[in-house]
Design brief:
Elements lengths: L4 E3 L11 E6 L2 E4 L16 E10 L2 E8 L9 E4 L9 H19 L11 E2 L7 E2 L6 E2 L4 E10 L2 E7 L7 E2 L1 E4 L6 H13 L2 E2 L3 E8 L4 E12 L9 E8 L13 H14 L4
Parallel strand pairs: 2-5, 10-16
Antiparallel strand pairs: 1-4, 2-3, 3-6, 4-5, 7-8, 8-9, 10-11, 10-13, 11-12, 11-17, 14-16, 15-16
The chain binds zinc ion (ZN).
């Protein structure tokens, strides 16, 4: 069955949840691949906070943040990444949303400015407020660009130093304060592989909850320069003809995988 999730626009008062997600220590309580439960028998004293997330196929859905990863019969605690590709995309991003709301609540129980204990905003917004200095902290989302550099029938794929398994993928990086997404594309490509690129073409966006990125995806044409991988973030980078890609490219659930497949479709005129 396909699920549809509608994020909550109104948070206060919180409705009674019909569907429950439990997170603790950066993990989700799962029964196999199922992380949305009818209410489970979890000790009430372990529930640090509960947050309404929205409607899942018409049912109110919320996340409970637990202070300890308690044993629940028939369940196990799993990392979010282990669900990628196993559950449908809509559900994966719901799991990511639950995790990000849980992380935000965990990480901002004290004010980063004055150290006082924070409270949930009484105004019905998803914010933790400092009663002493009024600092408001919302769940943090970090915008990133991910870009497939193209040169005629070729695209540029790189192997990142921190990827142990040698997966070739598109370039990516965080947007700096004061920078537009387009400027970030040009800067990151130049820093990572030494190329000059033209005008980026926006393809689409995707939340990437590891831990809280919003990926903005582009294709961008090569203009000038030869490949000079920085050897810090990028171990190696090569031009690949659309008909001769590496054996392993990112899965279609990822924006990187979608950029690559979209390029091949456009270049070859065939579906991938
Ligand atoms: Zn404060």
């Amino acid at each position: 069955m396909s699920h549809q999730f509608v994020p909550a626009a109104v948070l206060s008062p919180q409705p009674v949840f019909s569907c429950h997600i439990y997170v603790s220590g950066g993990q989700l309580l799962c029964a196999g691949e199922v992380f949305v439960h009818d209410r489970l028998d979890v000790p009430a004293e372990l529930v640090v906070a509960s947050h309404y997330l929205g409607e899942l196929s018409g049912q109110t859905c919320g996340v409970h943040l637990l202070s300890a990863a308690v044993d629940v019969p028939g369940c196990e605690w799993r990392g979010l990444r282990s669900l990628l590709g196993l559950v449908e995309e809509e559900m994966f991003f719901l799991a990511g949303r639950a995790m990000q709301v849980g992380n935000w609540d965990t990480d901002h129980r004290y004010c980063g400015r004055c150290g006082s204990a924070t409270i949930c905003s009484p105004r019905g917004e998803r914010a933790r407020i400092c009663p002493s200095c009024q600092l408001s902290v919302y769940p943090r989302i970090s915008p990133c660009v991910i870009m497939l550099v193209t040169r005629g029938e070729e695209c540029l794929l790189a192997r990142h130093s921190h990827h142990r398994h040698g997966l070739f993928t598109a370039l990516a990086g965080f947007i700096e304060p004061g920078e537009s997404a387009e400027q970030a594309v040009a800067r990151e490509v130049n820093e990572e592989v030494g190329l000059v690129v033209g005008q980026p073409h926006y393809i689409g966006s995707q939340p990437w909850p590891f831990p809280g990125q919003l990926m903005l995806g582009y294709t961008v044409p090569w203009l000038a320069g030869g490949l000079k991988p920085d050897r810090v973030e990028i171990a190696e980078a090569h031009w690949f003809h659309y008909s001769d890609l590496p054996a392993e490219i990112p899965p279609p659930q990822t924006l990187s995988g979608q950029l690559i497949r979209g390029f091949v479709r456009a270049a070859s005129g065939k579906p991938v």
